[in-house]
Amino acid sequence: MASTNEPTGQIIDEDRRAASKAAADAALLEAFGGVWGMVDTTVPGLVFVAVFTAWHDITTSAVAALALSLVLAVARLVRKQTLKHAFSGVFGIAFGAFFAMLSGNAKNFYLPGMLYTLGLAVAYVISALVRFPLIGVLLGPIMRENLSWRTRNPGRFRAYTRSTWAWGIILLVKSAILFPLYWFGDATQLGWVKVALGIPPFLLAVYLTWIFLAKAPPPIDVIAEMEAAEKAEAGREAA
């Protein structure tokens, strides 16, 4: 009898892991913006540094970058996609353009984004240290587990903690490269390095998060649990 049940148990476990992997993939794409999220946050900066390299005019470069970010937002609206990442890109570009034109220093175009990256890195590290990892807070609702991983799923707690450390360290390294260039380099150097450090660190952090979650136990679907409890309560009341 034991030999009959063992393959069935293995199949069930494999199915749960496959479902967990699919859910993790979808959650990562939704939470971090996917390909279009990278476009929204990277391409306008590329346009700024390219235009500035060619003409050395802050206003022209800033207007070109801001115009492109608005076009990308409109394109998302036409495709009926979420505007969350597009709006963050537009506001980031707008703040950078404002600071650059106000100060007359093209390097200040990148300062708001650099400060945001540094602040996010510190937040990730602190949240991991206090055992409330931000990646779990961000992905938990999308995975339908909310915060159940903190008390009911220690394997996922460890995975979210490792993922949060990965994001924090990667963003700290990125900041450690960019800020010396901001202080001691010129605007063109800073711009091209910042563009180069846009997508690769992001992909590395997403990949590590995917690896950690793929090896973790499946999420506990607390939404389904609540729905089942409500149905059971309604059934008892009807009876």
UniProtKB/TrEMBL annotation:
| Keyword tags | Membrane, Transmembrane, Transmembrane helix
Report TM segments: 26-52, 58-78, 85-102, 114-143, 164-185, 191-213
Provide an example Pfam family for this protein. DUF3159
Name of the protein in question: DUF3159 domain-containing protein
